[in-house]
Amino acid sequence: MSTPSAEESLNEAQKCAGSDPKRAEKIYNEILEQNTDKNATQAENAVVLRHQEIALVKLGELYRDQKNAEGVAEVINKSRAFMSSTAKAKTAKLTANSIYCPPHLQAQLDLQSGILHAEDKDYTTAYSYFFETFESLSSQDDPNALGALKYMLLCKVMLNLSEDVTSLLSIKLATKYAQLRDVESMRAIARAHQNRNLADFEKALRDYQNELSSDITIRTHLSALYDTLLEQNLLRIVEPYSVVEVEYVAQQVGQGRQAVELKLSQMILDKIFHGVLDQQRGILLIFDETTADNTYGTAIETLEQVGKVVDSLYAKTVKIA
Q1: Per the domain annotation, does 284 fall within a domain?
Q2: What is the mean pLDDT of residues 46-55?
């Protein structure tokens, strides 16, 4: 849809919002369903996104005026997909500020914003959104506050601030949740991560499987954290050696040999350490990082300069002769 058509559609929807809200709703949804064109310029796509932003806000206002709680909730869900194409969490704030949202829906917006920031590994900003959500839901005695608290604890772990977990659970709002199994599961993860103990980490995942695996956000981030912890443990084991048996490394980390071989291969390819896997002999050869030797390049450069001097002297000799 061209820019003028989109503007006309927005104007038409705004005019018929009072007399024919169903028609206005349909127009706003049609605008929101448009996709940006990969072949279009950045400015053209920005115009499309701006129209969608206006449509999203106006649709929320339409539902608000109709006292349509389900419609407002639908706008919140639409805003999450829309945030992936724009400034993500900023759009959530814009939507919330442009239309009135009840505290519960505002908390859900903050929660989605925090999840998006966590996906971008911006755990500091994510924590602030989760904290706002937790405060709001706790004040309403909403059981979903527990989920926000778990996300806060997850952010502390992902920021390598596992030691802050205990102090966080001592604040007034969190004390009533501190002894719950869901919170204990995150406490166990924090302890294992702080001690860099892979076995304890795996034990926590087994002991609290329901608490840690039922939430896709927590499951995804813990999977990445486990991978990092495995790398750290493998490095700690292989670094003292120049040659080490893969079977021995696998025993030390409590993993299968094939899985360890695959991970070591990946680490070598990622240049986390320098080495070669000899699968026939079942050993790993580790060597120090080689430093570039510039002697050859320096010698070539010197010879080039000598050549220039010789050519210059020869030219002068020809002139004298």
Answers
A1: yes
A2: 76
